[in-house]
């Protein structure tokens, strides 16, 4: 017996509100007895960090090397950010007509259709412990973290040699009643890219900027300016390329500005809405030349695994030019750098949008490096000034939400719901109630959720019926996104980190 998953109208990229349809296909060569078939839509956010401590740590010698070496602390933290489950067999009609919970299927191919709608927000189960089912018994495997956030689902991600992994998949499980027979499972992964949130209101011609000033060094003498290298014992004087007939101008004082529309948002698969210009702060008649232009997008990924935290920096080069010798034209002391150097270059399709989850978050900065020289006419003096301007930015996915959803959210006010009590066992055996506050939504600025003390009921750590968020509730009757989605391609070295099924495959575990 084998089982596999086939998607209907498979997309290279899925997003919020998309409907995933498919079939779980069961291939049987002889009569098989099963109890039920479940199909689940899951998203997992997993981190794994290792820290070497020297001298011996205070963690009770956990992971201590033999031979007296430093302690090795290895932590893994897993959050289930998406969880939906349906039972595809037996159907409700079969269950009502049957008097038993065990069913025998004849040889052949059996197809069981399923359908899921991808929600907006993550649904991290705030369970006190993580449970693993082994032969029908639930075993507590590890303590859970106290940080849970509820925001928009993050994009698929697999980076830093297995330190951080976000994956989405559909899993089918064929349960067999005999305790000595293993259940059959299969997974089919898919790429996910979230819808960008509604843009905040922008002011008329409002911009954010990064600015730096610079004063070129004054020329000490005509002879030193016109000689690139002075003579030495074994070296002859090398004349510079500056024409002796040209009078050297006084050095300029400048201010370099980089500007983006306010708020500072850039979008995946689209060019930068960037302006760069130079302003003269004195009356120098010198001519300015652009020699170097480099634009980088620096991603800071914060990875957390319980008490271990690590920040990883990655750089994506958008524009890199040198030896340009581009003369800047001055208009009222303002010299604009031609946007043609970057306006037709979209962000690489390997850039993921900014996001924040329980144990992984990513933020971006735009680094603009500008190298300038000055001279007289077409003659360029040897002095080169290189300045780097840094602008924190948000990266949006470039997938706009449906207009019907934006209007529905703008016209309605989220209802205020009273806190729901949670029951925890106490030392006396009597239940105790601990209220928790309502979780923030994806399009607000949520704070940290309070830590829930006690222990949750291990019978169902991941309930099948998770209450929908406000955005999911009002988007229930809105169809999928009908617009451009761009392309998202993870680097080949990162895809498949930590193993796991990357396509439709079958087998038993």
Tally of alpha and pi helices: 4
Major sheet summary line: 8 strands, mixed
In total, how many beta strands?
A: 30
Estimate percent helicity: under 10%
Strand content: 35-45%
Mean pLDDT: 77
Structural class: mainly beta
Shape: elongated
**CA distance, first residue to last residue:** 13 Å
Low-confidence stretches: 54-69, 126-144, 221-228, 417-466, 492-509
Computed Rg? 30 Å
Structure notes:
The chain is mainly beta and 509 residues long. It has four helices and 30 strands. The chain has helices spanning 92-97, 222-226, 403-411, 470-474; strands at residues 2-7, 19-28, 32-34, 36-53, 71-89, 103-105, 108-117, 129-134, 137-143, 157-159, 164-175, 184-190, 207-215, 227-229, 238-239, 253-261, 265-267, 275-280, 287-305, 308-321, 326-327, 330-331, 334-336, 355-356, 360-376, 379-380, 385-396, 421-425, 431-435, 507-508. Strands 17, 19, 20, 21, 24, 25, 26 and 27 form an eight-stranded mixed β-sheet that branches. The longest helix has 9 residues, at 403-411. The chain is elongated, with a radius of gyration of 30 Å.
List the helices and strands and how they pair.
Layout: E1 2-7, E2 19-28, E3 32-34, E4 36-53, E5 71-89, H1 92-97, E6 103-105, E7 108-117, E8 129-134, E9 137-143, E10 157-159, E11 164-175, E12 184-190, E13 207-215, H2 222-226, E14 227-229, E15 238-239, E16 253-261, E17 265-267, E18 275-280, E19 287-305, E20 308-321, E21 326-327, E22 330-331, E23 334-336, E24 355-356, E25 360-376, E26 379-380, E27 385-396, H3 403-411, E28 421-425, E29 431-435, H4 470-474, E30 507-508
Parallel strand pairs: 17-27
Antiparallel strand pairs: 1-2, 2-7, 3-6, 4-5, 4-11, 8-9, 10-11, 11-12, 12-30, 13-16, 14-15, 16-18, 18-23, 19-20, 19-21, 19-25, 22-23, 24-25, 25-26, 25-27, 28-29
